From TrEMBL:
Belongs to the sigma-70 factor family. ECF subfamily. One of its GO terms (biological process) is DNA-templated transcription initiation. Residues 18-78 form the RNA polymerase sigma-70 region domain. The lineage of its organism: Bacteria, Bacillati, Actinomycetota, Actinomycetes, Propionibacteriales. SUPFAM superfamilies: Sigma2 domain of RNA polymerase sigma factors, Sigma3 and sigma4 domains of RNA polymerase sigma factors, TPR-like. The keyword Transcription applies. The keyword Transcription applies. Residues 178-278 form the DUF6596 domain. This is RNA polymerase sigma factor. Coiled coil: none annotated. It comes from Kribbella capetownensis.
Length: 408
């Protein structure tokens, strides 16, 4: 019983996207694909413990799901649709124009991440259709009621159908732009897990970071030559490696300079560094995720923060800001500048961002830390108060409160 259950969990991770994608390609309907795949896995849960795990679980699930989909079409079809129904069920599929890469799972990912959908909807739909997360799991990720999340995903599938959003990989010329959108979705999932925004959830949510990494690995396997896919995977791995040291036993966020580096995951760091080295060796101008991964590689390459090569980090931020001149990148660059040129120089750079980041808790937290280092305690206290007011993460709030309360 236990072995079969473990096999089902493993096969669900490995085969869900493949089964849903194959059904979507055949029947052209996300609703039918999702429901039939779920029914096939439910039958597996019932039968496999008694009958044993089949030699090819993916093929068994796909066959079972196909039968369930056909049963549903038969139930729903009207008499005058019988000819069309027969074609769907028995005719060979007509050849479809291929994209730059032809894989059913990629088709599914690009459909779920289509720019016609809102970013939040893309995230939810990707977690459901590609990741196989249940509705309650996705609802918890968004901190909304399960019924509301179900309605959101239902509307998204209806929009895909009504707008005739094509189930295909984009053409070669459109692929770079569309891949960027897919990576944005996966990065958003990862960030919500790495530092949860809501106060009523765990401060670090491993199930979301693990799912983001798993889906990015899938994209990496399907698009091994894409530098930004490799860069995002490296960035996630190097960030995830620090997770065991990020929250104290008392539930407080532990800043990078205070973390026990011996608790970092050495295997994830080694894999992340290898990906960064591979991208450097490729000799191609790096994109945003590759530069962020390189910055994290510098951070994770030393056992003592005092040995950090801050000049290299600032240089990497200089490179990043040329392709992503956002105020958040400028803020992170200023944090590195504080280690190189001192807190006063850094504070001047941070203060120039006030009009752009006044509602961002990390801006006020950074100002508070710099003012504390400059012994400007009253100003630091006010900045900590503002950061605490804006921060939603419970571990981060605890960290900021302790720092504020330590002021003289």
């Amino acid at each position: 019983m236990g072995d079969a259950q473990q096999a089902i969990i493993r096969v669900h991770h490995e085969e869900w996207a493949r089964v849903v994608a194959a059904l979507t390609r055949r029947f052209g309907d996300l609703d039918i694909a999702e429901e039939a795949a779920a029914e096939a896995f439910a039958i597996a849960v019932e039968r496999w413990p008694a009958d044993g795990v089949p030699p090819n679980p993916g093929a068994w699930l796909t066959t079972t799901a196909n039968r369930k989909a056909i049963d549903r079409i038969r139930r729903e079809s009207k008499r005058d649709d019988k000819h069309k129904e027969a074609q769907i069920m028995y005719d060979d599929e007509p050849p479809e124009p291929l994209g730059a890469i032809d894989d059913d799972r990629l088709r599914l990912i690009f459909t779920c991440c289509h720019p016609a959908l809102s970013l939040e909807t893309r995230v939810a739909l990707t977690l459901r259709m590609v990741g196989g997360l249940t509705m309650p799991e996705i609802a918890r990720a968004f901190l909304v009621q399960e019924s509301a999340m179900g309605q959101r995903i239902t509307r998204a599938k209806a929009k895909i159908k009504a707008a005739r959003i094509p189930y295909r990989v984009p053409s070669a010329e459109d692929l770079p732009t569309r891949v960027s959108g897919v990576l944005s979705v996966l990065f958003l999932v990862f960030n919500e897990g790495y530092l949860a925004t809501g106060p009523d959830t765990d401060p670090v949510r491993h199930e979301l970071t693990a799912e983001a990494i798993r889906l990015t690995r899938l994209i990496r396997a399907l698009m091994p030559d894409d530098g930004e896919v490799a860069g995002l995977l490296a960035l996630m791995l190097l960030t995830e490696a620090r997770r065991p040291a990020r929250v104290s036993v008392s539930g407080e966020l532990v800043s990078l300079d205070e973390q026990d580096r011996g608790a970092w995951d050495a295997a994830l760091i080694a894999e992340g560094h290898q990906l960064v080295r591979e991208r450097l060796a490729a000799g191609v101008a790096p994109g945003r995720y590759q530069i962020l991964a390189a910055i994290n590689a510098v951070h994770t390459s030393v056992r003592d923060i005092r040995d950090t090569d801050w000049s290299q980090i600032v240089a990497l931020y200089d490179q990043l800001i040329r392709i992503d001149p956002s105020p958040i990148v400028a803020l992170n660059r200023a944090i590195a500048v504080a280690e190189l040129d001192g807190p006063e120089v850094s504070l001047a750079a941070v203060d120039r961002l006030d009009d752009k980041l006044a509602g961002y808790h990390a801006y006020h937290a950074t100002r508070a830390d710099l003012l504390r280092r400059l012994c400007r305690s009253e100003e630091a206290r006010a900045a900590y108060d503002k950061a605490i007011e804006l921060a939603g993460n419970t571990a981060e709030t605890a960290h900021l409160t302790r720092r504020r309360d330590q002021l003289g």
